[in-house]
Specification:
Layout lengths: L2 H15 L12 H10 L5 H14 L3 H6 L2 H8 L5 H19 L7 H5 L6 H10 L10 H9 L8 H11 L5 H14 L12 H6 L13
This protein binds iron/sulfur cluster.
Iron/sulfur cluster binds next to helix 12.
């Protein structure tokens, strides 16, 4: 199969496997989503969803969060890891949202990336999942699967995002990036795979008879 044919098959098959694409991080608006995505750095979504009810009970708006002392935020999020850095970022971005954005999360990639603790992937998730703007945030799952499926030889998530955006229609990006994450969690996990165990690779590489060493991590 040529690369574009592989991409088209992946897009079609994952839409059949995951017709619904619920956002994995619990939230009620753009601000609570932004905070939840920030907390998910080097942490599982399941852990973040355990932590955020307590945090948002203390503060679920920029105004209320800006009132909290950093140690209070840090204590509430400590099980997410990197708590000192994340708590400082949450406090500071809340103050910046009030000062520069009338207390609203800006639906603007550049403005989001200027916020403390918010990188390109976090900003892309918020643009896609809070504002419905097409984006293709690439995390470790998507980076790994895109390599295994021969959709990119990107050395990092930036290169992989560039390649995937060329292969898939823009209107599919927001649902597709979640579907790839779901498949990465359900079947194509970080543990190695010999590239022959499931229908996806058997369809993408019909002549593959011998196990291959696939990308881990
Ligand atoms: S065969 Fe392995 S590498 Fe290929 S899609 Fe399935 S789980 Fe992933």
């Amino acid at each position: 199969m040529r690369k574009q044919e592989r991409a088209d098959f992946i897009n079609r098959r994952l839409a059949e496997l995951y017709p619904e694409t619920p956002v994995p991080l619990d939230h009620t608006d753009a601000f609570t989503l932004l905070v939840a995505v920030l907390l998910s750095a080097q942490c599982t979504d399941a852990r973040v969803n355990l932590v955020t009810p307590g945090l948002f009970a203390l503060a679920d708006t920029p105004e209320a969060m800006a009132e909290l002392e950093v140690p209070v935020i840090q204590e509430a999020i400590k099980s997410c890891g990197l708590a000192p850095r994340k708590a400082k970022a949450i406090a500071e971005l809340s103050k910046i949202l009030i000062r520069d954005h009338a207390g609203e999360v800006p639906a603007n990639m550049a403005a989001l990336e200027k916020l403390p603790g918010v990188g390109h992937k976090t900003a892309s998730v918020v643009m896609a999942q809070a504002f419905g703007v097409p984006a293709f945030p690439v995390d470790t799952h998507i980076h790994r699967l895109a390599q295994r499926w021969g959709l990119t030889s990107g050395r990092n998530v930036v290169e992989t995002e560039r390649d995937l955006k060329k292969l898939f229609p823009e209107q599919d990006w927001n649902a597709l990036h979640l579907r790839i994450i779901f498949y990465g969690r359900d079947a194509c996990t970080a543990r190695g795979c010999d590239g022959t165990v499931c229908e996806i690779c058997r369809t993408l590489y019909p002549r593959r008879r011998t196990p291959v060493v696939t990308k881990k991590g």
